[in-house]
Amino acid sequence: MEDVRLRVESLNVSFPNGGELTRAVRGVSFTLGKEKLAIVGESGSGKSTIGRSLLRLLPRKAVVSAERLEFDGIDILKASEPEMRSIRGKRISMILQDPKFSLNPVMRIGDQIAEAYIAHAKVGKKLAEEKALHMLEKVQIREPGRAYRLYPHEVSGGMGQRAMIAMMMIAEPEIIIADEPTSALDVSVREQVLEVLRELVDRSGIGLIFISHDLNLVRHFCDRVLVMYSGKVLEEVEARRLDDARHPYTRGLLDSLPSLAHRRAHLPTLVRDPAWLA
């Protein structure tokens, strides 16, 4: 793959649990270039843990190891905290799934976006405000000047999520980790937010890690898909060829999706085999 920016080889993450270690991520490996990579699986499969491990945002008690965890030649596991601060938000950003819990409720939206730019670009307040207004316009928020002055509780979920995207994009990162960025939105708003994200990613030529449980969404939005089960990647497939997936678990996820075109009396039960983790 050309222009690989992120290399992950045999990533393992465990958490202490009553004197034992519970494995949350098991030997995960992948690379990321200028593309949209989806990580899918059921809740608890380790998707979000991977995203947080790339930014070293896991709790201190987490046990993290990897043969290689490298971003632009930087060993993330060995990087100092000042080095990580220069990466987080500026070079790798993370969009969380619900703006209600991600935005500061007592700060105006525009000020939060401007603050992110000041922190990473070291510019003055006036320039940061101008950049924030430009980003609000870029994510297709009408009347950006009015939106700038609003508090998070005064905006809809879709507008809040666009504001989050503006905040994460304002420093012009090289990689974005989007963790269920549209799960709290209705279908029509979700499509609008995804279109905004697609345009920004394609125009800027950045790498996107899209964490989701929605197979129908990622097949149309992403380029590649990693399918996870209990912390392990069971299959990697091109998103446009998702229907050709071979692993029984991926087939089970696909078969359990309801369809208006092919009505069935009962959806099949998803089968899980512990032998897949061997």
How would you characterize the overall build of this protein?
- This protein has 278 residues and is α/β, with parallel strands linked by helices.
- It has helices at 47-54, 81-87, 99-102, 109-121, 125-138, 144-148, 157-169, 187-204, 215-221, 248-255; strands spanning 6-17, 20-32, 36-40, 63-65, 68-71, 74-75, 92-95, 175-179, 207-212, 224-229, 232-238.
- It has a six-stranded mixed β-sheet with strand order 7-8-9-3-10-11, with helices on both faces. Strands 1, 2, 4, 5 and 6 form a five-stranded antiparallel β-sheet that branches.
- Helix 4 (109-121) crosses helix 5 (125-138), helix 5 (125-138) crosses helix 7 and helix 7 (157-169) packs parallel to helix 8 (187-204).
Name some characteristics of this structure:
about 280 residues; alpha/beta; five-stranded antiparallel sheet; 10 helices; globular; Rossmann fold
Give a quick summary of the entry.
This protein is an alpha/beta fold and 278 residues long.
Write the layout of secondary structure elements.
Layout: E1 6-17, E2 20-32, E3 36-40, H1 47-54, E4 63-65, E5 68-71, E6 74-75, H2 81-87, E7 92-95, H3 99-102, H4 109-121, H5 125-138, H6 144-148, H7 157-169, E8 175-179, H8 187-204, E9 207-212, H9 215-221, E10 224-229, E11 232-238, H10 248-255
Parallel strand pairs: 3-9, 3-10, 7-8, 8-9
Antiparallel strand pairs: 1-2, 1-4, 1-5, 5-6, 10-11
Helix pairs in contact: 4-5, 4-7, 5-7, 7-8
